[in-house]
Write a structure and sequence with these properties.
369 residues, mainly alpha, three-stranded antiparallel β-sheet, two-stranded antiparallel sheet, 36% helix, MAIN-like
Length: 369
């Protein structure tokens, strides 16, 4: 977390709507998509979802014995110290070092991979623990590549963004580096960043490696009006086109439906951010109710049908920020994306946003400290 610009991330979190899995900007919706995860982190998006078993403390102990090469006594002592079915990331690193020195490669690999996902895509709000159930992903190392790790990262981040967008929540779990790099990629004028390397000289590397950490000086109060004043021209709508030669676009990214990982289910709605895929944005259908979804795995496998439904009503964009007639009028009727009252000259342009006081909707704003 000491590599994250907390104020920058917070300014975007308070624009997140969990019903639509998107950030509501003044000019429409945007989201972190499967394509973004693929290009920023180079995680595979194709693969199966994972539905784990419930893991008790006793099972956590047995998993550590069987798959991490720990003695029964040490495993019991460690799980007891965690006060739950978890392992400490520091403990996993020590196991990795020990097993690597002993050439116990299977144990070392599992300890490393569990530590890796526990400190990145599956990070919880402790940022020191990882749930023991994730060790089930690595019991058979030959099967690891069969999971949709990109979807796993996205589901986890969507879930924590939904929590953090609530006023009562003060922390963000998941992989905030993914969110921050997404901001850097799409909004080049927002936030402070350093350059590790130039993309043209490093063709095959994940784009999230491009930036080095720079702490911004702007607070959330300073960033709100800056984000409110952004226009479509300030956005790089298709930031990964220069790397398609080695990271091709996968039409699976246009799948519309629910994504799941474990017991978490979230809506994934590319029809609400079509400009990020090079299409003209139309008025999307109402959000999905994932609580009613029953055949997510079937829908995921048969994604072609949903892709056709997403792109059939639209055409390729003539300019990157193309929208259909009536889209913005509809959008301002269903959303209240401006967080700071506009200046008088701007107010006339968006006067339909600001009706009488009886019509105003108060938006809960969350700070991440």
């Amino acid at each position: 977390m000491n590599k994250i610009d907390i104020n920058l991330v917070s300014a975007f979190v308070e624009r997140w709507h969990l019903e639509t899995s998107s950030f509501h900007m003044l000019f429409g919706e945007m989201s972190i998509t499967l394509d973004d995860v693929s290009c920023l982190l180079h995680l595979p998006i194709r693969g199966v979802f994972w539905s784990p078993q419930d893991v008790t403390k006793e099972v956590a102990v047995e998993l550590a014995v069987d798959y991490l090469g720990v003695s029964q006594g040490d495993a019991q002592s460690h799980v007891r110290s965690c006060r739950g079915s978890c392992y400490k990331l520091e403990w996993l690193y020590d196991l990795f070092v020990q097993h690597r020195a002993a050439s116990s490669w299977a144990y070392a690999t599992r300890a490393y991979l569990l530590m890796l996902v526990g400190s990145t895509i599956f990070a919880d709000k402790t940022f020191t623990l990882v749930e023991a159930r994730y060790l089930l992903l690595f019991t058979d190392l030959d099967r690891c590549s069969g999971y949709s790790w990109g979807a796993a990262a996205l589901v986890t981040l969507y879930r924590y963004l939904g929590d953090a967008s609530m006023f009562s929540c003060k922390q963000l779990g998941g992989y905030p580096t993914l969110l921050q790099c997404w901001i850097h990629k799409y909004f080049p004028t927002v936030g402070k960043r350093g350059e590790n390397w130039k993309p043209a000289d490093n063709y095959g590397l994940p784009r999230a490696m491009r930036w080095s950490y720079r702490q911004g000086v702007l607070k959330v109060d300073d960033l709100r009006p800056i984000l409110d004043e952004l226009t479509p021209a300030d956005v790089i709508w298709r930031p990964f086109e220069d790397q398609r030669a080695w990271r091709q676009f996968d039409e699976l990214c246009l799948y519309k439906g629910c994504l799941k990982w474990g017991d978490t289910v979230v809506p994934y709605l590319p029809d609400r951010c079509l400009r990020q895929f090079g299409y003209k944005q139309y008025i999307p259908s109402p959000p999905l109710d994932c609580m009613m979804a029953t055949d997510i795995d079937v829908d995921w496998i048969g994604y072609h049908q949903s892709v056709i439904a997403v792109i059939r009503p639209t055409t390729l964009a003539t300019t990157p920020s193309d929208v259909e007639d009536g889209y913005l009028e509809w959008y301002y009727c269903v959303s209240h994306p401006r967080l700071v009252p506009p200046h008088h000259e701007i107010q006339e342009r968006y006067q339909f946003l600001f009706m009488t006081p009886d019509h105003l909707i108060l938006i809960g704003l969350v700070y991440l400290h």
